[in-house]
Amino acid sequence: xxxxxxxxxxxxxxxxxxxxxxxxxxxxxxxxxxxxxxxxxxxxxxxxxxxxxxxxxxxxxxxxxxxxxxxxxxxxxxxxxxxxxxxxxxxxxxxxxxxxxxxxxxxxxxxxxxxxxxxxxxxxxxxxxxxxxxxxxxxxxxxxxxxxxxxxxxxxxxxxxxxxxxxxxxxxxxxxxxxxxxxxxxxxxxxxxxxxxxxxxxxxxxxxxxxxxxxxxxxxxxxxxxxxxxxxxxxxxxxxxxxxxxxxxxxxxxxxxxxxxxxxxxxxxxxxxxxxxxxxxxxxxxxxxxxxxxxxxxxxxxxxxxxxxxxxxxxxxxxxxxxxxxxxxxxxxxxxxxxxxxxxxxxxxxxxxxxxxxxxxxxxxxxxxxxxxxxxxxxxxxxxxxxxxxxxxxxxxxxxxxxxxxxxxxxxxxxxxxxxxxxxxxxxxxxxxxxxxxxxxxxxxxxxxxxxxxxxxxxxxxxxxxxxxxxxxxxxxxxxx
Length: 481
Known about the structure:
- The chain folds into 3 domains: 6-154, Potassium Channel Kv1.1, Chain A (2-Layer Sandwich); 194-273, no CATH class; 293-480, no CATH class.
- Residues 373-391 have low confidence and may be disordered.
- Helices cover 37% and strands 20% of the residues.
- It starts with 5 loop residues before the first helix and ends with a strand.
- Strand 3 (62-64) and strand 4 (67-72) form a beta hairpin.
- The protein has 18 helices and 17 strands.
- The strands form 4 sheets. Strands 5, 6, 7, 11, 12, 14, 15, 16 and 17 form a 9-stranded antiparallel β-sheet that branches. A 4-stranded mixed β-sheet has the order 2-1-4-3. The chain has a two-stranded antiparallel ribbon with strand order 8-9.
- The chain is an alpha+beta fold.
- It is flat.
- Residues 290-478 form the TLDc domain.
- It comes from Rhizophagus clarus.
């Protein structure tokens, strides 16, 4: 059995770093008024970093009295102090470091090919400094976007922006983003904002990058040509099908000089001949383990808008934000948890995966599931006290609610929808159920899904069936202006 004494080894190497007089490398770090000398041993640097192994073996290194002189002006002394201690001792303490220094440490560790340190710092930023990241997307993305090994942090930033893009896109700092960052952002299918907002941002960014004035009255052909050259690779990423005809005429076509002719032809064919452009609408990103996002975008959203499922959505249609608020496998599958997580008069979508089948059941309620309390019934706009019995119910009025089923998570040919018939009993709020669409037309009773036909909804589900719930998810559905 091998015994390990890493603690004492680390301590001894720390003494070598701090007190040794046999160093053979002098490293000048920093620039201007922030410069510091570090003393090190080439054998340790080469052993710990493939960067130093190559650099210190090169013929172009400077020597003075057999001392290797090495310059790193692009790394600050504060950051290099962390690096050299890590190299010698394998120790790192970031608790007292500023977030800016930690970001610089990430970039420096990538340059010095310290892979273990790089991975740790990247994970540390995501797990411990997420609030700072969310306030400094532009700084971080511009710093790390050219680092191929930093994909995890890049993806984290882009995914976070796509969920709440408006504060970022509307910021002045966003206009200074590197073109690679802008490209990676607007090419995403899950950017959750109106397409005209993306277009407006792109035009402003292009004007800033081209150093043009915002007053187009003073522009000439050279100005438009400069903007076109700046935006040439970005224009094809815009989903013009997602821009309303009004915004197209008022905000897009004034810049038609920067739009390639084939795209202008696609736009004209779409609005005059109903031929879809090459790029479809962006997907409404949905964190579901039950259903594919495509089914939400192609079918459920159209059902909510009372449109035919095969009608393509355009910029004239409402845009929705869909947020996960409850997942049974994570939060627990029972009535109490569901009611606590999904309480409130908020338009909501529930999805259910049942055991022993690929079937998916679900329902949409424009008024939520348990919004008024436990002791009142609403029927024909009249409130009546029912007492506290767990089987006493509350009926909510809704003309927009519906229930549905899919054969599996990808099938768009065998889906069924049952719209409300008796809107006075669209949703029943009852203690014995997590949710209840119209007197158990579709209801949750702890870990069971119950289906009973009482004529409240169109009869599209198996009559008088009970299933065990394998997974259940609830999402709030918010219409964006």
